[in-house]
Amino acid sequence: MAWQETHKEQSKDRILKSAAMLFTHYGFEKTSIDQVMKKAELTRGAFYSHFNSKSDLYAQAISKGAKVAAKRKPENFPQDMKNFAKYYLSTEHRDNNDEQACPLAFLVSDINQQDNQVKKTYTNTLKAFIEQAQTLTIDREKTLQSIVLMIGGLAIARALNDEDFSDELLAACKSGVISLSTGENADVS
Q1: Burial (Cβ within 10 Å: 0-12, 13-18, ≥19) of residue 55
Q2: Using CA atoms, how far apart are residues 169 and 156, in angstroms rounded to an integer?
Q3: Among 18, 89, 121, 138, whose CB has the most other CB atoms within 10 angstroms?
Q4: Distance separating alpha carbons of residues 85 and 148, to the nearest angstrom
């Protein structure tokens, strides 16, 4: 008896969720296909019915990871840059290793080493994130500045081994985003 089409879609979804989680935590080089398949609770053979290569998986996992991470926003999330920055640049977002991390922040240094397919997916994911943020402000340049502060701030804060300094960096980036959205110095409390 052949597998139903929904089974194949569900298997691919499990693989993508597994890969997105592992890639954002360990990067491309330190994540193997075997690790991805083990976390997805599937055999390595199932990988080849869905993906042409590890790079193909990586590109698709970036998109999946961004979608999964975006769903973590709280319900009735206030639609303004101040609250968007507070949510994105939180210590919870930085420290949570059990949830899907933002691939834009946590793969930023890894992407430059990848092929054009991966770079194109990352670029499109970043553009979608910018479009989402653009709905919260009318100034495109300030939106771009805010997004760079958010992604860069979160990525650097997570890379540090000094929690107090990391917290200070997150607070400074939140303040910067809020200042950009209001045009004045911001209180991030």
Answers
A1: middle
A2: 8
A3: 89
A4: 11
DSSP-assigned letters across all residues of 96-162: -SSSPPPHHHHSHHHHTTS-HHHHHHHHHHHHHHHHHHHTT-S-HHHHHHHHHHHHHHHHHHHH-S-
Q: Could you give the CA distance from residue 189 to residue 174 in angstroms, rounded to a whole number?
A: 10
33-78 tens-digit pLDDT: 999 999 999 988 889 889 999 999 999 999 999 988 888 776 666 6
Q: Whole-model pTM? A: 0.84
In a domain, 188, yes or no: no
Token pair, residue 150, equals 């958010």
Number of domains in the chain: 1
41 C-beta neighbours (distance < 10 Å), count: 10
- Decide if 158 contacts 166 (C-beta within 8 A): yes
Q: What is the CATH number of the domain that holds 64?
A: 1.10.357.10
Q: Which residues contact 14 (CB under 8 A, 6 or more apart)?
A: 40, 41, 42
Range of the domain at 171: 5-182
Residue type, position 152, single letter: G
Alpha carbon distance 93, 67 (integer Å)? 15
| Residue length of the chain | 189
pLDDT in tens, 98-112: 778 889 999 998 999
Dig out the tokens for 121 from the structure: 């997916």
